[in-house]
Write a structure and sequence with these properties.
- With about 325 residues, the chain is mainly α.
- About 75% of the residues lie in helices and about 5% in strands.
- The protein has a 3-stranded mixed beta sheet.
- A hairpin with a 4-residue loop joins strand 1 (about 5) and strand 2 (about 10).
- It is globular.
């Protein structure tokens, strides 16, 4: 490979090919992804702003929603701008180290999102099963600690991906048939032994997905048992209604994730490659796009906060208009 360093067989750059076989339609393909990205950024940043400015939303449940929104924006921003540059301007080259950085942040934020969803399930468990101790258990200090623990877990689990790629010799070209730098897509360009890469990737998915989903399942099992034992039907309805938005977020995140994982592992010969690339991109963009809509529609306090915020803005505009007169 002409662009490779002859001593280390490390390429100076990779070429991201976008969606192979559909290069002529890249402009049209970019439109839904661009719209989803704009909705994701505006919706999640709006949620963060609303939660930070409305005192009624300064509670653990909404802090976790704000953290999820921050993670969603960071995750999709890690790859969508570069993907749109590929679609619009054919800027396919990406420096080797920049590719590693992109891979690191995509995987790190994906793992972080799974951890936050687990924390949100535990939050609902404490709120419903131990309502009198809720404020004493989930203090601001406790929330900060579990957030940093979740974040550092993601960082520590993602760092080995970088070193596993750095150690490989690349002699099968530098063309990545993808829209972003993915761990296994990069590893498959190596002529070295990538068994460790594949095993570590599989182990990470099993450990993180298995542990987080186990905690979520256990939390909601105990929540359902506690809610069923409530004597009042209104209390049962209210308890369940506080969980519906979280359950929707879990489904939106984990169903596409596992579909992507199993098609990548077991459906590679039956599913066309360009279809798989579509699935992967929608998997990464769907949760950030839909989560603000889910929480805005399903969570009464957030709906009321939006109305209150708009009323304040309208009142402020009317006052400025009267002053100008």
């Amino acid at each position: 490979m002409g662009e490779a360093n002859s001593s280390s067989l490390t390429p100076r750059y990779f070429i991201l090919n976008g969606i192979p076989g559909l290069e002529a339609a890249h402009i049209w393909i970019s439109l839904p992804f661009c719209c989803m990205y704009i909705l994701a950024v505006v919706g999640n940043c709006g949620l963060i702003y609303l939660i930070s400015h409305e005192e009624d939303l300064h509670r653990p449940m909404y802090y976790f929603i704000a953290l999820l929104s921050f993670t969603d924006v960071s995750a999709c921003t890690s790859f969508v701008p570069k993907m749109l540059c590929i679609f619009w301007f054919s800027l396919k080259e990406i420096d080797f180290n920049a590719c590693l950085v992109q891979m690191f942040f995509i995987h790190m934020w994906t793992i972080t999102e799974s951890g936050i969803l687990m924390l949100m399930a535990l939050d609902r468990y404490v709120a419903i099963c131990y309502p009198l101790r809720y404020s004493s258990i989930l203090t601001d200090t406790a929330i900060t600690k579990v957030w940093f623990a979740t974040f550092f877990r993601s960082v520590l689990l993602t760092i080995p991906f970088t070193f596993l790629i750095k150690r490989l010799p690349f002699c099968r070209g530098n063309l990545i048939q993808h829209t972003y730098c993915d761990h296994m897509s990069m590893a498959k360009l190596s002529c070295g032994n990538i068994r460790t890469n594949a095993l570590y990737g599989l182990l990470t998915v099993i450990v993180i997905g298995g542990f987080d989903i186990l905690c979520i399942t256990a939390s909601y099992t105990m929540i359902i048992r506690a809610v069923i034992n409530l004597s009042s039907s209104d209390a049962r309805h209210k308890a369940f209604s506080t969980c519906t938005s979280h359950i929707c977020a879990f489904v939106i995140t984990y169903v596409p994730a596992f579909f992507n994982f199993f098609t990548h592992r077991f459906g590679g010969h039956t599913i066309p490659h360009h279809v798989h690339i579509f699935i992967v991109n929608f998997y990464l963009l769907l949760p950030p796009t839909l989560n603000p809509i889910v929480y805005g529609v399903k969570t009464k306090q957030i709906r009321e906060g939006v109305i209150k915020l708009f009323c304040k803005e309208k009142e402020g505009f009317n006052l400025r208009w009267l002053c100008d007169i």
